[in-house]
Design a protein that fits this description.
- With 199 residues, the chain is an all-alpha fold.
- Helix content is 65%, strand content 0%.
- The chain has five helices and no strands.
- Helix 2 packs antiparallel against helix 5, helix 3 runs antiparallel to helix 4 and helix 3 runs antiparallel to helix 5.
Length: 199
Amino acid sequence: MKSAAQNGILSLVCIALCWFLKCSAAPMPESSGDPELIQFKWKNKEFVARMKSEISDLKESMRTDFSLGTDDQFLFMQDFLGIEQADHSHCQKATCDLGNCFKQLRAGLHTYYGYFSHIKQILPNYTNRVSSLQLDTSNLSTNIQLQFEESSLPVVTYPQAENQPNFLQEQREIGSYLVLRKFMLFMDVITRALNHCIV
């Protein structure tokens, strides 16, 4: 009798524990298990990795050519030079808002695409390499747009930016270098977003 009572109590404890774990578990992202999104994730993580290598090489070339110091020496100039930080708040939520996260990533890529157009004008010796990076930026944005269409999400279009960053007039070399530095950080944001939002 005692053994049967203990078994009954143990069963009730197990049921209660299972119910608690089910209720307290964090919700899965909306993309969980979608094979097309999984393929999109890995394809573009590899693409971002190649872009990061390209950005790193270009940064080091500028550092050498312009005899620049360490990053810490010019970080305070970013705001003054009008180099914006791309918003990615929707990609950081505990439960990823996939649609709005993708919109923010595309908006950020659009911003940097514009910066690269300016850099080609003010640093003509870098035109070919910056054009290559700009093309990759456009292709990554297109990949996200196509995934929007596959996932039946609304496609976003962006107007041409009217305000030009201050580094076009002052500190052209440092400003261009800082754009690349921030773009590298944005590539890390995209990688984290892909890992967080698509599982």
